[in-house]
Write a structure and sequence with these properties.
By secondary structure, the chain is mainly β. Helices cover about 5% and strands about 55% of the residues. It has one helix and eleven strands, in the order βββββαββββββ. An eight-stranded antiparallel barrel has the order 1-3-4-6-8-9-10-11. Strand 9 and strand 10 form a beta hairpin. The longest helix has 8 residues. It starts with a strand and ends in an 8-residue tail after the last strand.
């Protein structure tokens, strides 16, 4: 069973919301694993767990607002998670990964679209985005004096290496 460990030092999970003052930030604390029940790349399962309270926008006021019950509600729901249900290869190095995204205790199907680099080397990266409508997850409030959009884009840049199992087989 090919298993990849995602290393934190080169990897980032960031988000962006269009706003009168654009809202961009990153999560400082998270874990991610990528496991494949077989060597077929389409069987992969990505599991990401983000500590919601580790949000960092560079502004204490914005971070406080995002941690509050109006947004991430970190006291009640400390984890933001994504667990993929399958991998669909859409091109030589591009993939769609539908899965279940949970934030504020609300789970909905969302898709991470990404490009993989380093195929066949036992190490590589996944760079991609997933967009969601914050209002579908109960985040209906605004931030004082800032008009923010409903669409939130989460960008992942995950670097990992195979720690066990045989190499993956990709479709050409």
């Amino acid at each position: 069973m090919p298993t990849f460990v995602i290393t934190q030092e080169n990897s980032t999970i960031t988000f962006h919301v269009k706003a009168s003052v654009d809202l961009t930030g990153k999560f400082e604390k998270w874990t991610a694993t990528l496991k494949f029940p077989s060597t077929d790349v389409t069987t992969g399962v990505l599991d990401v767990q983000i500590q919601a309270a580790s949000v960092n926008t560079g502004s204490g006021m914005k971070d406080g607002k995002l941690k509050s019950k109006d947004f991430f509600n970190v006291e009640q729901d400390p984890l933001i998670t994504f667990r993929s249900t399958k991998v669909v290869q859409t091109g030589p190095e591009t993939f769609d990964m539908p899965g279940t995204f949970t934030i504020r205790g609300v789970s909905k199907p969302e898709t991470l679209t990404f490009t993989a680099e380093g195929k066949g080397t036992g190490a590589g990266s996944i760079k991609g985005t997933m967009a969601f409508d914050r209002k579908e997850f109960g985040m209906n409030s605004g931030i004082p004096f800032i008009k923010i959009a409903d669409r939130v884009e989460v960008t992942v840049d995950l670097h990992g290496k195979r720690v066990s199992g045989p190499p993956l087989v990709f479709k050409q």
